[in-house]
Amino acid sequence: MIARKLLAVSAAMVMGLAGLTACSGGDGDDGGGGGSGDTQMTFWHNSTTGDGKAYWEATVKDFEAANPGVKIKIQSIQNEDMDGKLQTALNSGDAPDIFMARGGGKLADVVEAGQAQEIVVDEATKSQLSDAAFSAFTVDGKIYGMPMSVLPGGMYYSKDLFAQAGITETPETIEDLSAAVDKLKAAGIAPIALGAKDAWPAAHWYYFFALRACSQDTLDKVATEMNFDDPCWQKAGDELADFAATEPFNQGFLTTAAQTGAGSSAGLIANHQAAMELMGAWNPGVIASLTPDTKPLADLGWFPFPAIDGGDGGAGAMMGGQDGFSCSKDAPAECSEFLNFAMQKEYQNGYATAFQTLPASAEAQAEVTDPALVQVLEAYQSAPYVSLWLDTLLGQNVGNALNAGVVNLLAGQGDSAAIVKGVADAAAKE
């Protein structure tokens, strides 16, 4: 089964990967490009407002100027809507030529369905990226996506709110995190923002408990074997259930969105309405877009997800993803050319600045100055291994079952055993 023949799931994502990308939300159509030309392409990305949207418009304009006769029509889509709309377009045979891809099992399923083409990577791009940078976008030894960023996750927090609550050290264990939650509650501060309405932010909590509970070998094998018999999978759910029972999340978290508006989980951090959020490395950019002055949050800090008792995960191991772009099966050769064009140092520098995130290019990482992201990058570079987000790793159907099971647990309508059964049942249908 081609969809499960991915290169290196976790260990290969570690060193050698040169950075991280942001995932800025939005919706609507952009008219960038258009017009008539010898070659026309459509391009879907997930940044509908601000610097990210402007970055892609400028990059497309520069590419068109450098390639007379080529025109690219841009459509920006709200992040939470992207996967569903893209899958519908792919299945209908009306896919965009250039589309956002997160790699892993999700991309492998697209490749298996014959909906994507191999990317031609030029030598200049190869000099910017190590082989490991392409691991999440490689299926059966061929590259089907161009990585723009790497997105390890962890805990973002407000230094000012921690100080108000008398918290002087960032938590290193779940017991430490629970103690911090108690202090924040005592100070009248919502401890942790969670946008469970979008499912995947809630599921991140299970992913990270699994990262701490399961060994690297177990995480490496699950994508190919789809076996959830190891007791660590249920331990992860039990640990999450115990932590959730302490009521650490914002009021109404089950109906809170993740990244849209001041009332979203990112918005709660941006406006000092909550102290912490578990999220990937795109978060500083999203938070900055939601602050009152739309500038980076001055007191934003970061720390790794805490350790748990009795877990088999490696100390310092991280979990995250890669954002990149792929070419649909019928896209012209100019699709690969555009993706290589966007990997030039000038555009990777611009990407890092526009999205306030970690670019995939090693040379462009010097542009990363946000203190929280510098902390992420340092932890990432010293991590013994990095596992891919579980829903991305497992593919669309199994990943969706996992995410739904975690939301049910947090809503009091399921437990750890139900999560494991749900993903096992979904995997059996693959």
Automatic annotation (TrEMBL):
It comes from the Bacteria. Residues 1-24 form the signal peptide. The keyword Calcium does not apply. Keywords: Signal. InterPro entries: Bact_solute-bd_prot1, SBP. This is Extracellular solute-binding protein.
